[in-house]
Predict the 3D structure of the following.
Amino acid sequence: MELSDLLNRASDCLKHGNSAEAESICRSVLSAVSIENTDSPLTTSRQIADAHRMLAVACRLHGCFSEARQHADTAQGLYWEMGDNAAAGGAMIVKGLVHLDLGENQEALDRLLEARALIESAGDQRRLAQVICNIGNVYLNRGEYAAARDVYREAADRAQDIGDDYLLAHSLGNLGLVFRHLGDPQQALLSLEEALEIDTRNENVAGRARHLGNLGNVYQEIGDLQRAVTLYEEALVVHRQTGQRHNEATWLSNLGVLYQTLGDLEGAMQHYEMSRLIFHDLGAEMAEARSSARMGGVHLQRGEYKDAIELLEQALAKARHHNIETEVAIYASNLGHAHTLCGNFEDAEDYLNESLPLLEAQDSRHQIGVAWHYRGNILSDIRNPNRNVETAIEWIERALKVFLEIDAKRNAVEAHQALGELFRERSRWEEVAKHVQSAADLQVALINEETKLSTQRAYYQRQIDDIQRGHEQRRLEYLAKDTELQKLIDRLVEKNDLLRQISQRIGEATQHTRPQGEEKLGQVIDLIDRSLRTDSTGNVIDQLMLDVYDNFVRRIRLRVPAITDMELKVATLLHRQMTSANIADVLFLSKRTVEVHRHNLRKKMGLDASEDIYQVLRSV
C-alpha cells in the first residue's frame, strides 16, 4: 500500500476512534522512511510530518504524553520548514492538549492561543474551529464556566458553518459539560444527547463513548445512579474496543466512584485498582495518583487506616513532584483526617498545616470547610493529650458557617451533630437543642431535595425520550432516502446498460437492411440515445443526493469553492464509491466526460498522482 493510502487510513482510524491502529500505521510509515530518503516521490517531508502529527495524537490518547510531545515538536518543525502555518498550528494544538492532560492549564492556554494566531493567519477555518474548542477546554478545566460556554458556542457555530459534524458533536458535548457545571442538567442532557446522535450517525466511536460517559456524569448528579452505571459501562466497552487505554482507565475510575456512592466498596476498589494499573503502565503519574487517593478513601471507609495512609502518601508525593497544588491540598487534608482517626495527632496537624494555606489561596471553600472540620476533630478527640474542646468548637463553627453559605447540607448535618455532642459534654443544653434541631431540619430538607430530584429525573427522562424518538425518526428517514437513492441508481444503471446494448445491436443490424429500413433503425437509435440523455429519474436522484449528502455537499463546497455543479455531482457519487462507468449512467454523461470531471476535481483539490480520490472524498 502506498504511503498516502496508509496515512489516509491512519487519519480515518483516528476520526473513528481506532487510535491503536492509527499508532501502528504511523510507526510503520516512520520506520520505512526518513527525511533523507526522498528517492521516491511518495516519500515527502509532508507525509513524514503528517505521520508524526497523527502519532502524537495517538500517543496522547494512550497517555504517553512525553512521546506525544516529541512527535508534535517534530511535526511542527517540519511544517514550519514547509511554510505551512495552519499545519504547524495543528501540531501545536496537540502540544497544548498534552499540557491540559497534565493539569498545566496556563501552559496549555499559551500554546493554544499561539496555535490560534498561526491558524487564523493561514485562514484554515476547520482548524480554527478546532483550536477554539480546545481553548474552551482550558477554561472548563480552570472552572471559568461562563467563558467556556461562550467559546464552545463559537466553536459549534463555526463547525456548523463549515459542515464539520465531528467538531460540531465535540463542541456540543463540551457545552453539555459546561451546563452540568453551571447547574443546568436539562441543558446538559439536551446538548449531550444531540452530540451523541451526531457521532452515532457518523460512526464516531470515540466521540460516542465520551458522550455516553458524560451523560452518566449528569445522571449521577441528578441522583439516577443506576442509569449512570449503565452509561459508564457502555462507555467503558466502547473505549476498550478503540484501544484508548487512558480513557478506559478514566471511566473505570468513574465507575469506582459510582460503586462507592452506592455502598459497593468491593466493586469500587476493583475498578480503582484496574484504573491505577493502566495509568501506571501508561506513565500517567497524576492520573495514577488520583486512583490511588480514591483507593485510600475506600480504605478509610473500611477502617483500614494504615492502608489508606500509605496510598494517600503515594498520591501526595506525586502531586508534590508535579507541583499540582490543588491536589497537594486535598491529599494533605485527607491525610490529616486519616492520621486523626489513627490517633497520630502531630502528623494530622502537620498535614493540615500544609493543606490549609493552599486551600485558602485557591479559595476552595468546600475543601476549606472540610479541613477546618478535620482540625476541630483533632482538637476534640479524647485521645489527644492536647485536647481543647473550646477551640475545637470554634473550628467546627467556622466550618459550619462555610457549609451553610455554600449549601453543603450533608457536611452541615455532620458539623451540627459534632457541635451538639461537644456542647452536651459542656452541659450547654440550649446549644445542644439548637444543633440537634438544625441537623434534623437539614435532614428533612435533604429528603425533600431527593424527592424533587426524582420528579426532575422523570421530567428529564421524558425529554430525552422525545429527543431520541426524533433522532430515530431522522435516522430512519435518512436510511429510507439512501435506500431509495441506491435503488434509483441501480435501476438507472441497469436501464441505460440495456438501452446501450439494444442500440449497439441495432447499429450492427443496420448494415444488413435496405436503405429505407436503415433510416428507420437510425431513428430508433436516436430515440434510444435521447432516452439515455434525458430521464426524469435524474431530477429525483439530484434531489435525493442533496438530501442524503447535505453535510458532504457543504464541506466540499467550502474546500473547493470553484467546484461546478456537475463536478459536485461527480464528487458526491465518488463519495459513494461508484465507478466512472456507473457515474456516467447516472448523470447521462459519457465515461470520458466523467474522467474529465474527475481530473478537474483532483486539480482543484490539489491532489497529487499518488492520492486516492475515493479515500480523500470519504474523509471530507
Remarks:
- Residues 15 and 321 are 35 Å apart (CA to CA).
- The radius of gyration is 32 Å.
- The chain has a mean pLDDT of 84.
- DSSP finds 29 helices and no strands in the chain.
